[in-house]
Amino acid sequence: MRVNKKVRMNRLFGNGRCLDVAIDHGVCNEPSFLVGLEDMGGVVEKLVKAGPDAIQMNYGQADLLQDVAGKDKPALVMRIDMGNPYNRIRHRAMWALLQNEAEPLIGALEMDAACVVVNLFMLPDEPDLFKQCVQNISRVRADCEKYGMPLMIEPLAMLPVDQGGYMVDGDAEKIVTLTRLAREMGADIIKADPTTRAEDFHRVVETARCPVLVRGGGKEDLRAVFDKSAALMAQGALGMVYGRNIYQHANPSAVVRGLMAIIHDNADGAAAFDLYNQA
Questions:
Q1: Is the pTM of this model over 0.85?
Q2: Phi and psi at residue 253, in whole multiples of 5°?
């Protein structure tokens, strides 16, 4: 008997919206991503107190969240793949692999995750990397159906490496096209990059035909993050998956407070920034 995915989706989307704080960056093998994550136990403790809807982690650290007692803690979103496109150089071989090739969902099931997330990299002149991502998604989708595990796909259209590393390409046409591909492959949730012009993001939402959460990317000015987040929510996003824009700021709990106000209370950027400054 198949388990209904809605059971787990309800744990993520409290009022139909979700803030997922990503701290799964250790698998990227990029030192700059680890600033702010040196003490994972301390980070998880602070985030649990801050109360986002979910925390995104890898299997090897998920016990820090799931060992916390009580029913009101954030849901676990588990990343089940890893790759090497986040460094500032082009490697001789670009790759994306499932963390457990034989049984990719076993860790998520063991740790009672509410969702799993897998990348869909689209890098210039890297068709083999794209193929590997498609194979990864194809490998896990049937298991997600079997076990009632929501599948979050992260379509990433990136710029060429010679433009400062594989940075986000905010071209709406590319993001919409890759989002459509992710949906065609069976995504239950899309974690999408913001379009360069926030007013174009409704196209991503319309293409997805499933909940869309906005990917945060690199650390930015906090007021700009709040303003952009509110603008993207107005375009139909149902929340955010932010990492460095939370854990690399001076007061991550206060950032969570501001973002939760935007996501769940329809606050604008100015109101969210005021909440941050009141902490």
A1: yes
A2: -65, -35
